[in-house]
Amino acid sequence: METLTQRLGALAADQDVVGTLVLTIEQRERSRFRAMLGNGEVIGVILERGGAALRAGDGLADDSGRVYRVEAAPEPVSTVRSDDPLVLLRAAYHLGNRHTPLEVAKGYLRYRHDHVLDEMVRGLGAEPTHETAPFQPESGAYAGGGHHHG
Questions:
Q1: Phi, psi angle pair for 60, to nearest 5°
Q2: 58-61 sheet: strands from edge to edge
Q3: Can you give the pLDDT of all 150 residues of the chain as single tens digits?
Q4: Fewer CB atoms inside 10 A, N or C side of the chain?
Q5: Residue ranges per domain, the chain?
Q6: Which residues, other chains included, contact 15 with Cβ-Cβ below 8 Å and sequence gap of 6+?
């Protein structure tokens, strides 16, 4: 089994790659896992612990320098869209208070589908839509380090 051990950061769009790993956010947050390439080949990933989560567009390489591109897998999410920035800001504030991984983009917020969070967001005047989409949450102010209250 091929093993990828090197993080390359964001790849250029025209970077030559030998394969693509389509990974869920759960996989991209881990430092050690197995994944399947599009051709069915199983590949291992062993990265230094404690680094930030992999992001769509990042590169990984094996010891011989072969480069693979990371892509975000579609997964069940709730997406909140609004033309009113205040609606999104309030929803982001309350989701953040619950330490919910959150994708923040122009005109929408996205989080892992959770009916309890959906009800909270509805109570704030927004309407979440259930989708299957790539999920790319913010890395957060405390990425790579501990965050403790008190």
A1: -130, 150
A2: 6-10, 58-61, 67-72, 19-23
A3: 889 999 999 999 999 999 999 999 999 999 999 998 878 889 999 999 888 889 999 999 999 999 999 999 999 999 999 989 999 999 999 999 999 999 999 999 999 999 999 999 999 999 999 999 999 999 865 555 444 445
A4: C
A5: 3-72, 74-134
A6: 59, 67, 69
Is-same-fold flag (3-72; 74-134)?
A: no
CB of 73 within 8 A of CB of 28? no
The domain 3-72 is placed in CATH, from the list 2.60.260.20, 3.90.1010.10, 3.40.630.30, 3.30.420.40, at: 2.60.260.20
Long-range pairs, 31-37, Cβ under 8 A, ≥24: 34/1, 37/68
How far apart are the C-alpha atoms of 93 and 95, rounded to whole Å?
A: 6
Please report which residue ranges of the chain form alpha helices under DSSP H. Answer: 25-28, 85-97, 115-123
Fold (topology level) of 74-134: Alpha-Beta Plaits (3.30.70)
